[in-house]
Amino acid sequence: MKVLVLNCGSSSIKFQLIEMENEEVLAKGQTEKIGSQEAIFTYKPKGKEKIVRTQAIVSHDVAIEVVLRALMDPYEGVLKSKTEIDGIGHRLVHGGEEFVDSVLIDEEVKKGVRRCIQFAPLHNPHNLRGVEACEQLLPGVPQVGVFDTAFHHTLPLQAYLYALPIKFYREHKIRRYGFHGTSHAYVARKAAEYVGKPVESLKIITCHLGNGASITAVDRGHSVETSMGFTPLEGLIMGTRCGDIDPALIPHIADLEKLTLAQVDALLNKKSGMLGLTEKTNDFREIEDAAAAGDQQSIWALEAFCHRLKKYIGAYSAVLGGLDILVFTAGIGEHSPLVRAATLKNMEYLGISVDEAKNQANAFDIGTGRVKVLVIPTNEELAIARDTLRILKERSS
Ligand code: ADP
Question: Which CATH superfamily is domain 2-147 in?
């Protein structure tokens, strides 16, 4: 059985075709700058060279057509016909309170995803365009939606309520939702498999540290706290997002810089975080190199990033009432010994300590204390493909 995984953003589409028998990636790639005459199409079929082409790709429909053509190309392709695709798994960003699990997409589900556009106006419309393009290009192939928010539907009320007038929750569903759910769920399960215990018996903290970053407390398999909120802006310091700030700064900055609210929003999402602090880059490799060369702003930025993360680990171990496993994942979590070491310094009191040689080597299991400290590569595409298969099997049984 072959599953096509699609992650449709505003101007990019990432894809993977996975053979589910052995979970092998048959082909993967992405289309960037959709809507331009110079879109970039990257395609890597299994066992063959990567191809990068610049071409006009005016819409999401055309982008998906380009993907399908590459998959079926006589030379670079991996399929003989479209009919070999058994299912499509879509990453859908926001499922609000309506979607607590992955679902088979039908007209009702599309209406629900449309209702959730109010929560994710920059994501859900593009996700839906991908779904509709597939309906045209691959008619009859079942499509499954896998929501970023779904894993966090188990957050208890005390974790998701903001202390605003309650009508904002009652009437407008303004609350904390959380994101990166597919990744947090995937690495928490992997961690449980590694220690050979059911996830239902474990207290786990998962740190997803990529360009976007979030941390989740997983109590016996359920997300009970997570750092992103109504939007992905809340929580940890990120590549270009500020994470937690005093909300009173928003009118204050608007006043100081004579900015509109939309401009302040863009400043907090796109010009802050590590980019804002370093005034150079949001790329951790470059920041670490600059810090090593003595650049003071890069040193401060790294210290602030690790401090915020440490604070959340402490808070979440308090929420869980103990901790069995701490997981690091995504670009920074998987590849930055410096971030892991700086964050976990002086946490022996919690049972957390690290073998520095293993940490430097990005080994899988780097802890030496009571708490297992694991570095686990995330694989959101595989998690989406597995969920797609599960939902398709449930449908046919
Ligand atoms: P996203 O998927 O959110 O765009 P990733 O999970 O790919 O992000 O993570 C990107 C981040 O990981 C970048 O800041 C990048 O610099 C960082 N990263 C990747 N490799 C390394 C490394 N070897 N050392 C430090 N940071 C790294």
Answer: ATPase, nucleotide binding domain (3.30.420.40)
Q: How far is the CA of 329 from the centre of ligand 1 (A)?
A: 10
- Using a 6 Å CB cutoff, which residues line ligand 1? 210-212, 239, 283-285, 288, 330-332, 335-336
340 CA to centre of own chain = 19
78-95 per-position pLDDT tens digit: 999 999 999 999 999 999
Identical topology for domains 2-147 and 181-380: yes
**Topology of domain 181-380, CATH:** Nucleotidyltransferase; domain 5 (3.30.420)
Q: What is the pLDDT of residues 118-139, one digit of tens each?
A: 898 888 899 999 999 999 999 9
| DSSP for 115-180, written as a single string | HGGGT-TTTHHHHHHHHHHHHHHSTT--EEEEESSGGGGG--HHHH--SS-THHHHHH--S---S-
d(CA 285, CA 213): 16
DSSP letters, 296-315, are HHHHHHHHHHHHHHHHHHHH
**Average pLDDT of 235-248?**
98
Q: What is the DSSP string of 51-107?
A: EEEEEEE-SHHHHHHHHHHHHH-TTT-S-S-GGGEEEEEEEES--TTT-SS-EE--H
What residue segments make up the domains of the chain, in order of their start? 2-147, 181-380
How many DSSP H helices and E strands does the chain contain? 15, 13
| pTM for the whole structure | 0.95
Residue 148 annotated as catalytic: yes
The single residue of 73, 101, 106, 148 carrying the catalytic annotation is 148
